[in-house]
Amino acid sequence: MTSHAALQTLGDELEHAIRRDLRTRRRAARILAVSLVALVVGAGAALGSRLLSAHEIEAGMPAGSALFGGTHPSCTLRSDGVTYACTLASLPTEETSEDWTNAKEILTVEKHIAGGCIGRDSEGRRWDCYLGEEAVKRLILDRDLLGAYAPVPGRG
User: What's the rounded Cα separation, in Å, for the pair 141 and 116?
Assistant: First the structure.
């Protein structure tokens, strides 16, 4: 074999090796991306599907909405097993409204959207909160928001 033919063969082998390596890396990158998406969606579903303590709901209200900052919510799980009845120790001051009835606000747990709350009186003292799919069914938030990262309380 001539040196030119040997170099050509070596070049072909290197090219095939590089292509195999790139395919393997692309496949690994796709697997990693799909795994990360599944992890994020799974975390959101897990937050939305497990029952939280009243304390977690009380902490999740101001973590999800600036409206609840400094209001010191007190929540209890109703006998229906899905509704957390919450009462604010002080009225919302972050935002103002003539009537808070049916106002909708986000609830976060561990910096991820877990559900939402609906205002039950005009002054904004009583709220009903729901997790996961229940919050979606009650049109508080869109399903795509469940589990989304929310590092700071929402405004407006």
Answer: 7
Domain hosting residue 28, numbered range: 1-156
Kindly write down the DSSP assignment for every residue of 63-132, as one continuous string: HHBGGGTTS-EEEEE-TTSS-EEEEESS---SS--S--TT-EEEEEETTEEEEEEEE-STTS-EEEEEEH
pTM above 0.90, yes or no: no
What is the count of structural domains for the chain?
Answer: 1
Kindly tell me the sign of the dihedral angle through the C-alpha atoms of 59, 53, 114, 129. Answer: negative
pLDDT of residue 109: 95
List pLDDT tens digits, range 94-125: 777 889 999 999 999 999 999 999 999 999 99
Residue identified by tokens 């976060």 is: 108
